[in-house]
């Protein structure tokens, strides 16, 4: 069976040819690093991914965590994977050297995470959430809180969660009901129930640090009354050692379709005296702090979705190359040899579509991560701001596009295998089930559409959107110099103008009449995503074109094939997937309200 | 929780308003029947579906059949469901009175099956396959074979299977390796392995009758060397009573993503002396006979897919009506009451899309079943032939459209529920897993595309396609008389012309160069399907329009709502889904070969 985690040639392409990761070593923060160190890091992560994550991908699905009323039981491989990652230091890879970290660029950390996700997404989630929670504490908590919680979260003694959702509120954070009661010693007592809390309980670490959104008693209604608290499962003594159990109870596990080796929990805070919690930063600013975590988590979801799509693609590709079946239509002889199914046009379509989705999604997410990097370490304030604004704009697309098309990609992977794709004897059906979580968590598809059209486009007088348009036009300008890329240039050029027109029309509508103006925000999100991805593919095609045109002598046959594949995938995306924007723009321009005007009683 | 199986008001609409089912009683075969009898039949099936099928939908998934090396163990509810259906007489509902049947029209039987599928598709499959196998024996076997096997298959003592697929051949039946050795007594000894045989072993019936495709020793290569055999699990004595076990062994169960309460088996025929088998009809004509079964099974798959989509739609609709969350965009006050999520535009989009897919798929499948009826019982030979040819043309669409869009529909049902849609505490994720089988079995999507463009379109000088065009034009003609339906008329009119042009171009290409001409057959299948479905929705819209325009006095408010819903779903389908044919036709007209020209080495 196929044992690749990701395609390392392509990861190399994305990091060093599509992106300029090697140039990062010119920045002060990365001065001690080199491409060799980056690659050595990824190679060791790949080994860990194979040895400690891929090894129990299927087993963790068939033997999901269970709760006996006292403890959560898990297969032992999960704990071994947790320890292996902790030992590797990847939990703190991005932190500064003087914090005990490896001071690696985000894009290397994200690539490392992609290997772990591709090998076993649900097991990898334990440390992703811990890193994310730890980052919030590092950014916003006070020194005492940091000194108590950050070191054990960086070395894997403590795990972390984000506890936002409640049973009756879902996507609408304004309506959370969990209350924090001030206590004499300056801490708080938290009471309330949280639901769908990923990794809310498990047996991997000595302690679990919940970041809990709650409203301090008598706080203002809505999102401006939400505060953020550290609520450990086990309280700490002043010296940081473990004390008594906090008043946090696991009410039960939820049983997911996929992602089964991660626990999904219902947690009761404060069933007895109230769970001891420590306010992070200022009262009522909780959502603001949490958004840092959510934005990073959204890019993380996109990257994880890209990784699952990539695994499915590689599996179905390997299968299609080995599985003989049938003959080409023109061959009517029953005595001729069967061809491998990769020879069938429709199988090629399914593989090429997956390639365009999986490699495209990975390119998009690593690009977004490079913006996260630039936001923090680019040389000038202007570059940093530009990157921050562009990333802010693109985040809904980075979260939702890989999730949506990742599902379609894993669907095609099943279809390539046919009946074998549908049975648990092969990994494709599990990838499909795992992937289906991604369009739901960290803000469902519909929320991302509203975020893009309702908030991100209009922000700062469309500054983000203007930057995006400029970036695409710069790429188009470069492509326009190359006659061979005209077939890619024209459709994107036209689609960009369409997007510009539609955006102008819709933003005016949203201002005047938000309900109907935002009614088709999900269609807008998809249209926007198609333009973004066409651009991402054009950028890859440009690199491939230039690599191919260095002359035969410079690159060998397999390298030529690699770049030809990139060009063909770009052609596919731009000729097969981008044109849907034509009809989408017509729907959006007229603001078609067929769905909006549908009445409850008519269903 | 929602406990509807299907929407009986809509089923009524489809049977008696969209189709003319009541007029069937004017045909001699149905002279003794009435609408009341039809409805009473469906009501009793609905009760059985609720009591004996819906009751273990989740349990059968969580406790799938297991094999201990000797017997297949199943939850007892499966056997109770099997018996309940046998007792009801639905297994033989279509058969003539003098065969012991109920002599009911196909469309009533198909509706009955839809109720069972919607309640529990995998349990329902046991009797669907039995009926299908029994029909082949009735049509093509000799009298002795019929007298031995038909009665016990009609009353549920014997079950049936279709054993086509082998481990190394999949969709390419020409390459099956199972051999039938002639035996002195006129029977055959079958040797070979079959895989993915649904319900190939179980403990519901006294015997299992396998219809096995095999090649008689020294038969011609390819599909013209395939014969069809009856191979019972337990051999029969001359009087029809059970004799010794045949040489048919269950090698193992396959473990599916969904449809788990149906067994999927690997069967070894003839590991010892050879499995005793009885030739059906003439040697080497097996595939011809099997095609009757496959064509019926394909319509059955479509109907089952429609039923699963329908269940998901009804569940998510009920949830959306009850679940409060968030506020409309224009309402910025955190103190206002939360709205039920059906108020959110994007949720309405997801519900309306499901309505268009689920109700549309059901309408398509019942329409196809009415053609099956007309093929057999229409008054004139001309009508019968016309129906046969049209059904033949449409079968790939009837199989694949509900399967493909059923998956998308169940995907949306999950999305409406968000996190709750993803957990096994709700039925949506199971419906999604169950549905995913449908684009695979009975001829995968790609096979249906090749069948449509490569065989069905060109057959009899495009006679089928011409009839289809005529039918759509007749409906358009009727719609053109109604000004209010102009918004539906124009897009279909244009799409039909596009389809005509594309079809002419492609059929010429296929003739000249089959490999590249058929390369985009799956895109053609989807384009064709969209036109078919737009027509199906226009026909529903016409009925709804006329019902609404009888005047207020005639229909009450809930009836008005029902018809308004039909009109709105038609608008949705025609304005949101049909326009994709514009870009599809451009791809097809230029015969875009980006996928076809992709090279193995470029992946």
Tell me what you see in this structure:
2 copies of one chain form a homodimer. Chain A is an alpha+beta fold. Chain A has 3 domains: 8-151, Acyl-CoA dehydrogenase/oxidase, N-terminal domain (Butyryl-Coa Dehydrogenase, subunit A, domain 1); 156-285, Butyryl-CoA Dehydrogenase, subunit A, domain 2; 444-598. Chain A has helices at residues 8-18, 35-53, 57-62, 76-88, 106-140, 143-154, 286-322, 345-377, 381-417, 428-435, 445-456, 459-480, 486-512, 514-517, 521-548, 557-577, 580-589; strands at 66-67, 72-73, 158-163, 179-182, 188-198, 207-216, 227-232, 234-236, 242-245, 248-254, 264-269, 275-279. In chain A, the strands form 3 sheets. Chain A has a 5-stranded mixed barrel. Chain A is globular. The model of chain A has no long low-confidence stretch (mean pLDDT 96).
Question: How many strand elements of chain A?
Answer: 12
- Major β-sheet profile of chain A: 5 strands, mixed, barrel
Q: What is the N-to-C order of secondary-structure elements of chain A (H for helix, E for strand)?
A: HHHEEHHHEEEEEEEEEEHHHHHHHHHHH
Shape of chain A: globular
Biggest protein-protein contact in the assembly: A-B, 108 and 107 residues
Domain count of chain A, please report it: 3
Discrete helix count of chain A: 17
Indicate the low-confidence ranges of chain A by residue numbers: none
Strand residue percentage of chain A: 5-15%
Q: Radius of gyration of chain A from the CA trace?
A: 25 Å
**Overall pLDDT level of chain A:** 96
Major sheet: arrangement of strands of chain A? 4-5-12-7-6
Q: From the structure provided, what is the oligomeric state, counting identical versus distinct chains? A: homodimer
The CA-CA distance between the termini of chain A, in Å, is 48 Å
Binned, the helix content of chain A reads 55-70%
Secondary-structure-derived class of chain A: alpha+beta
């Amino acid at each position: 069976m196929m044992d690749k985690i990701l395609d390392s040639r392509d990861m190399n392409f994305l990091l060093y040819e599509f992106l300029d990761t090697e140039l990062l070593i010119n920045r002060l923060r990365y001065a001690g690093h080199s491409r060799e160190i980056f690659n050595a890091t990824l190679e060791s992560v790949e080994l860990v991914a194979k040895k400690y994550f891929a090894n129990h991908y299927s087993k963790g699905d068939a033997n999901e965590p269970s709760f006996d009323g006292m403890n959560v039981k898990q297969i032992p491989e999960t704990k071994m994977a947790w320890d292996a990652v902790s030992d590797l230091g990847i939990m703190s890879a991005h932190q500064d050297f003087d914090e005990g970290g490896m001071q690696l660029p985000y894009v290397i950390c994200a690539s490392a995470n992609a290997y772990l996700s591709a090998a076993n997404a649900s097991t990898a989630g334990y440390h992703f959430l811990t890193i994310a929670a730890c980052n919030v504490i590092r950014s916003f908590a006070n020194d005492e809180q940091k000194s108590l919680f950050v070191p054990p979260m960086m070395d894997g003694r403590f795990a972390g969660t984000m506890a936002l959702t409640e049973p009756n509120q879902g996507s609408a954070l304004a309506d959370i009901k969990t209350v924090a009661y001030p206590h004499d010693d300056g801490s708080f007592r938290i009471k309330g129930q949280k639901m769908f809390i990923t990794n809310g309980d498990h047996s991997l670490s000595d302690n679990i640090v919940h970041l809990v959104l709650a409203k301090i008693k008598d706080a203002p209604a809505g999102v401006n009354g939400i505060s953020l608290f550290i609520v450990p499962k086990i309280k700490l003594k002043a010296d940081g050692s473990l004390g008594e159990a906090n008043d946090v109870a696991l009410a039960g596990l939820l049983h997911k379709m996929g992602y089964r080796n991660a626990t999904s929990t219902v947690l009761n805070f404060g069933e007895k005296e109230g769970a001891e919690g420590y306010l992070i930063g200022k009262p009522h600013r909780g959502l603001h702090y949490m958004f840092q975590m959510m934005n990073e988590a959204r890019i993380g979801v996109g990257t994880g979705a890209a990784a699952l799509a990539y695994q499915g693609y590689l599996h179905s590709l390997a299968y299609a190359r080995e599985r003989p079946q049938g003959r080409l239509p023109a061959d009517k002889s029953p005595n001729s040899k069967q061809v491998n199914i990769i020879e069938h046009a429709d199988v090629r379509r399914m593989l090429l579509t997956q390639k365009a989705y999986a490699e495209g999604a990975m390119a998009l997410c690593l690009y977004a991560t490079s913006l996260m990097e630039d936001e923090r370490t680019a040389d000038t304030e202007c570059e940093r701001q530009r990157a921050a604004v562009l990333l802010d704009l693109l985040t809904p697309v980075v979260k939702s596009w890989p999730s949506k098309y990742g599902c379609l990609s894993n669907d095609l992977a099943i279809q390539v295998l046919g009946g074998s794709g549908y049975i648990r004897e092969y990994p494709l059906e599990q990838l499909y089930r795992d992937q289906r979580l991604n369009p739901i968590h960290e803000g469902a598809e519909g929320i991302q559409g509203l975020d893009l059209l309702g908030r991100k486009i209009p922000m700062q007088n469309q500054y983000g959107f203007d930057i995006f348009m400029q970036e695409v036009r710069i790429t188009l300008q470069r492509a326009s110099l190359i006659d061979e890329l005209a077939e890619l240039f024209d459709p994107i050029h036209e689609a960009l103008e369409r997007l510009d027109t539609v955006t102008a029309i819709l933003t005016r509508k949203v201002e005047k009449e938000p309900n109907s103006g935002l009614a088709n925000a999900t269609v807008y999100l998809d249209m926007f995503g198609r333009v973004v991805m066409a651009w991402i593919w054009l950028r890859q095609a440009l690199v491939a074109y230039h690599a191919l045109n260095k002359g035969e002598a410079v690159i060998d046959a397999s390298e030529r094939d690699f770049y030809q594949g990139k060009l063909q995938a770009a052609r596919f995306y731009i000729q097969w997937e981008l044109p849907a924007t034509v009809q989408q723009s017509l729907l959006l321009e007229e603001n078609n309200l067929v769905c909006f005007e549908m009445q409850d009683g008519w269903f």
